[in-house]
Write the structure tokens for this entry.
Amino acid sequence: MGGTVYISVKISKMNDTLFIIIPAYNEEDNIANCIDDWYPIIESHDGGGSSRLVVVDDGSKDNTYEILCDLSKDRDWLIPLTKTNGGHGPALIYGYRYAIEQGADWIFQTDSDGQTNPNEFDAFWKSKDDKDAVIGIRPVRGDGVSRKFVENVVCFLLKIIFGVKVKDANAPYRLMRSNLVSKYLDRMPEDFNIPNIMLTTYCVYYKERTEFIPISFIPRQQGKSSINIKKIIRIGLKAISDFRVLKKNM
């Protein structure tokens, strides 16, 4: 039988609302520089006065949140949030949900440790109009060979378990439509440690309109990472069982 075929086309608005989400934990040495780096980006990409730079303090034991609150006094687009410590992944989920609830059109995520370059953001923004996600890949890892090895193992597991092939599943430099994040976020538990890996996996598995763009990734500038190899291994072992559960629901 014949019939009318409707084709849905997503068109970006001139004043797309952008929310930059940055998780932070014990980053009192880095956080001021982080805001100095990323605040001009949100100022220059403000969607009709509604865009925001949101930093999610994950229950820091130092003065990270207090510094953020002080910095926000003369920065209207900066929103400091704080929550009980739960790890990088739950902090991301918390920030993503906040952006969705606030009506963001686009969500961009990066980290607070100074390893990513805000000058590379415009290439992502210019590529977004016919995409659902623009995700960074790190050809060179400034955080050491052990982290690169872990990433390689993760990508191998994604290929074995989900049948997806990606070069870098967890890069903290990604621009995603808010409705895309919303579609897949509820599939993950609130305490899920690696939501970015699964968001990348869902994008590739379901053939969402995704572009991967190489980014630079330099060594941490100041402070000490709260993630060590033992913690990475523990997260990785749990991820294998989580992957199997999530795969059953795909």
Notes: Confidence is low (pLDDT under 50) at residues 1-12. The CA atoms of residues 170 and 196 lie 6 Å apart.
